Amino acid sequence: DAKTTQPNSMESNEEEPVHLPCNHSTISGTDYIHWYRQLPSQGPEYVIHGLTSNVNNRMASLAIAEDRKSSTLILHRATLRDAAVYYCILRDPRDDKIIFGKGTRLHILP
Amino acid sequence: DAGVIQSPRHEVTEMGQEVTLRCKPISGHDYLFWYRQTMMRGLELLIYFNNNVPIDDSGMPEDRFSAKMPNASFSTLKIQPSEPRDSAVYFCASSYIVGGLEKLFFGSGTQLSVL
């Protein structure tokens, strides 16, 4: 399985943008980049996914490097409710499984 | 839709007892996954089903663990006999195909403590 590398933890101030990095230098041409997050005492929830182009939805934006070896999840204006563990995952559409790594624990400072 | 429903929310049992965790997936979803989460090992995929059929159980730790999906609306994960090292949060998730990719929807989990 292609691997992702994320910082263990990050801090950000409330109401400021947050950029969560993910390195995936061994990504294959068919791998999609997925992001999930896990709020305290809850199961993970889907955030966003993309293949080559940048993507936006109501929760976040995903910026994908031109060589696809890295990506960044962008929370445009962090709130205290965004404090969570954020997981960057590579998905081969031929494989049904989603394997989670350690993720990045995001702390939001009021 | 109520989302993925897991029961019980918390389970405390003694070593050697049988434990059964339950999951009701979202209606219409054709994939069901069981995960286990601990501080040491993070989120581990135990087993998953497609259209009620087990597809990959390579993550099941040992024969003490078994999972069934008798119909599209119900799945169980059973541990017999339970051991203290089985203490963890167990999550059930379901998904549907979106352009060849699944989006997982997780339940709230079952916090299992084996004393």
The percent range for strand residues of chain B is over 45%
The portion of residues forming beta strands of chain A comes to over 45%
H/E topology pattern of chain A: EEEEEEEEE
- The value of Rg of chain B in angstroms is 14 Å
Q: Order of strands across the biggest sheet of chain A?
A: 1-9-8-3-4
Find the count of extended strands of chain A (DSSP E, 2+ residues).
Answer: 9
What coarse outline of chain A follows from CA principal-axis ratios? Answer: globular
How is the secondary structure organized here?
The complex is a heterodimer of chains A (110) and B (115).
Chain A: E1 9-13, E2 18-23, E3 32-38, E4 45-50, E5 55-56, E6 61-64, E7 70-75, E8 84-91, E9 104-109
Parallel strand pairs in A: 1-9
Antiparallel strand pairs in A: 2-7, 3-4, 3-8, 5-6, 6-7, 8-9
Chain B: E1 5-7, E2 10-13, E3 19-24, E4 31-38, E5 42-50, E6 53-56, E7 65-71, E8 74-79, E9 88-98, E10 101-106, E11 110-114
Parallel strand pairs in B: 2-11
Antiparallel strand pairs in B: 1-3, 3-8, 4-5, 4-9, 5-6, 7-8, 9-10, 9-11
Verbal overview:
Helices cover 0% and strands 45% of the residues of chain A. With 110 residues, chain A is mostly beta strands. With 115 residues, chain B is mostly beta strands. Helices cover 0% and strands 60% of the residues of chain B. Chain B has no helices and eleven strands. In chain B, strands 2, 4, 5, 6, 9, 10 and 11 form a seven-stranded mixed sheet that branches. Chain B has a four-stranded antiparallel sheet with strand order 1-3-8-7, with no helix packed on it. The model of chain B has no long low-confidence stretch (mean pLDDT 93). Classes of the chains: A mainly beta (110), B mainly beta (115). The interface between A and B is medium-sized, with 21 and 23 residues.
